[in-house]
């Protein structure tokens, strides 16, 4: 029986807090430093960087962090595992090696690749080996800017087994950078499903950095110390992963934020689908997760069951969708609706194009104004329009200049919000697909050494049966109309063009109300923008949670979405602000 391994996170996305690596290395004992840099949108960003500077399609911020902590990590035996390699893990490994040389250090650096399918994707599509995911389409493979399979953890395990101090990957699953070190440390086999599933859950919890320690938490006002100097600077999380796959999630003592059943439940619901969480190494049953407070800022995660993964890998592809442009006009004071109509009529009279000339157009009047306003901002609603088209000229200066041409011949109080006229800018379309695992092996390279090929095909096994509790009776008695957020927390995010909306209760009474009341029809009533969309509903009774997947809410994906909240980050908070009839007994039980 091996001792637990402490795996710390220092990044949740490309652009996260630069000092986090140093804080995690110097703030307390850890065994492994990890981080996640590769959101779906990031691959598109890196493809643009790479187009300008070949070989530079990786997260340069990671290299900077390594310069700060590499010496300390080597002195203390701390391994580093990161997916910051992006589209060029070999280029990132070379950059890290150059930093090591400059510092007079000699780490063993490894990199993992094999995920990049861009050079193969046309042939894979033509042969039928690349299949669209769910209800999406492949589009034109000739337009892809990136195409990367989500690899698992076994390339990382191989590199660590061969003595790597720093392991840099391309596109692996977010949890792989935690699952790999845990599997290496504990000597797990590829069919140790429950252990692997437990590590996947730990990885899912800590991969978004401070979202596990109070960031984006619905009940943030309850976090101790946030009103004190430095209290709002949350510490980043770590996971002590045990040999049986269970874990304790925590943060360094003396850092801001909070680790609680609430913050962990919230993060568990982030960007998931149904109870079967599919991955390349294991299918993790999120409906088996059990949480327990085991001390201040310490939560135990246990009971996680796993089963064999699918025979396919998910592939994330980004293509150039065309060009877009947008503007926002202030509608201030009286007659807001009439002003909106007049402003639109004046603009389209001045524009050389008709709305129907664009491939896509979104035009919204948003009533953010208030009656008897005490400030000019409270007096102001907005008209926002976004256009998309393959023709860059059509959405360029001719479009944005038309607004300026109406400045003195439009509504009273005319002014724009945001910057001035802009040229059209490119946007990407996200297209997920599936490819057979056997077609995408991993390659584990030791810099200056040898390369091993690792098969991506996992062992097969029968699925497991999981008993899921039936809904408890709906609480009865007198009810009052209050915001749903009085008793319910939420966490929402993007899943390509879909949005996920997780809702959780903190008492049995609130869970009984949520489970019985929040149907897909009720969600459509509360969120009219999703009224005509396909919605999935999934139950997680052990953590008193529901998860909804709203298909198509984000259009062609984050980079193409014309929604103000293009990543659905605030979707849950919108729902919490809606008013519903909640029994007084539920409110009395607390949140």
Morphology: globular
* Annotation field: number of helices: 15
| Average pLDDT number | 95
The separation of the N and C termini measures 39 Å
Percent of residues in beta strands: 25-35%
Largest sheet: 11 strands, mixed
The rounded Rg comes to: 25 Å
Structural class: alpha+beta
Helix content: 25-40%
Strand order in the sheet with the most strands: 12-13-9-8-1-2-3-7-4-20-21
Number of strands: 27
Q: What is the oligomer described by this structure?
A: single chain
What's the number of domains? 3
Detail the poorly predicted runs.
none
Question: Can you describe this structure in just a few lines?
Answer:
The chain is an alpha+beta fold and 591 residues long.
Can you describe what's shown?
- The structure is a single chain.
- This protein is α+β, with helices and mostly antiparallel strands and 591 residues long.
- It folds into three domains: 5-115 and 150-305, no CATH class; 322-429, Alpha-Beta Plaits (2-Layer Sandwich), CATH 3.30.70; 479-588, no CATH class.
- Helix content is 26%, strand content 27%.
- It contains 15 helices and 27 strands.
- The strands form five sheets. It has an eleven-stranded mixed β-sheet, with helices on both faces. Strands 5, 6, 15, 16, 17, 18 and 19 form a seven-stranded antiparallel β-sheet that branches. Strands 23-24-26-25 form a four-stranded antiparallel β-sheet, with helices on both faces.
- Helix 3 packs across helix 4, helix 6 (154-161) crosses helix 7 (176-186) and helix 7 crosses helix 8 (193-206).
- The mean pLDDT is 95.
């Amino acid at each position: 029986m091996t001792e637990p391994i402490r795996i710390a996170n220092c990044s949740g996305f490309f652009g996260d807090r630069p000092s986090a690596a140093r804080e995690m290395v110097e703030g307390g004992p850890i065994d492994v430093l990890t981080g996640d840099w590769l959101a779906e949108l990031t691959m598109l960003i890196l493809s643009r960087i790479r187009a300008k500077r070949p070989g530079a399609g990786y997260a340069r911020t990671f290299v900077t962090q390594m310069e700060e902590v590499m010496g300390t990590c080597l002195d203390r035996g701390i391994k580093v595992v990161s997916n910051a390699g992006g589209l060029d893990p070999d280029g990132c490994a070379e950059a890290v090696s150059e930093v090591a040389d400059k510092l007079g250090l000699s780490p063993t650096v490894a990199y993992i690749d094999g995920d990049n399918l861009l050079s193969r994707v046309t042939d894979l599509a033509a042969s039928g080996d690349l299949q669209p995911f769910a209800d999406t389409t492949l589009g034109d493979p000739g337009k892809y800017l990136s195409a990367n399979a989500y690899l698992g953890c076994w390339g990382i395990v191989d590199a660590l087994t061969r003595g790597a101090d720093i392991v840099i990957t391309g596109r692996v699953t977010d949890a792989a950078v935690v699952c790999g070190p845990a599997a290496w440390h504990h000597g797990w086999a590829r069919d140790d499903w429950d252990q692997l599933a437990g590590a996947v859950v730990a990885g899912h919890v800590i991969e978004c950095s401070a979202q596990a320690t109070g960031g984006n938490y619905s009940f943030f006002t309850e976090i101790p110390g946030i009103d004190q100097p430095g209290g709002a600077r949350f510490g980043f999380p770590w996971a002590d992963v045990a040999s049986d796959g269970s874990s304790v999630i925590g943060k360094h003592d003396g850092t801001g934020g909070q680790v609680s059943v609430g913050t962990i439940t919230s993060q568990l619901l982030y960007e998931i689908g149904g109870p079967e969480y599919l991955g390349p190494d294991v299918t993790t049953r999120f409906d088996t997760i059990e949480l327990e407070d085991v001390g201040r800022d310490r939560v135990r995660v246990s009971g996680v069951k796993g089963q064999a993964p699918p025979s396919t890998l998910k592939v994330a592809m980004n293509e150039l969708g065309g060009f877009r442009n947008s503007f926002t006009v202030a509608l201030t004071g009286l007659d807001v609706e009439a002003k909106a109509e007049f402003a639109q009529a004046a603009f389209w009279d001045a524009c050389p194009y008709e709305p129907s000339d664009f491939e896509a157009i979104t035009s919204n009047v948003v009533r953010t104004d208030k009656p008897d306003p005490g400030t000019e901002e409270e007096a102001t609603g907005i008209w926002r329009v976004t256009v998309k088209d393959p023709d860059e000229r059509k959405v360029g200066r001719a479009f944005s200049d038309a607004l300026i041409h109406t400045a003195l011949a439009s509504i009273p109080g005319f002014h724009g919000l945001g910057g001035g006229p802009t040229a059209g800018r490119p946007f990407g379309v996200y297209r997920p697909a599936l490819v057979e695992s056997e077609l995408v092996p991993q390659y584990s390279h030791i810099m200056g050494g040898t390369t091993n090929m690792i098969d991506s095909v996992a062992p097969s096994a029968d699925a497991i049966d999981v008993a899921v509790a039936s809904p408890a009776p709906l609480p009865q008695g007198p009810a009052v109309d209050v915001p749903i957020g009085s008793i319910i927390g939420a966490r929402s995010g993007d899943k390509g063009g879909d949005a996920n909306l997780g809702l959780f209760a903190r008492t049995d009474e609130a869970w009984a109300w949520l489970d019985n009341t929040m149907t897909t029809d009720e969600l459509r009533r509360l969120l009219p923008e999703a009224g005509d969309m396909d919605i999935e509903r999934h139950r997680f009774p052990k953590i008193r949670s529901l998860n909804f997947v709203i298909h198509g809410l984000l259009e062609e994906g984050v980079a193409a979405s014309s929604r103000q909240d293009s990543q659905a980050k605030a979707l849950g908070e919108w729902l919490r602000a809606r008013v519903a009839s909640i029994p007084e007994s539920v409110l009395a039980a607390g949140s």
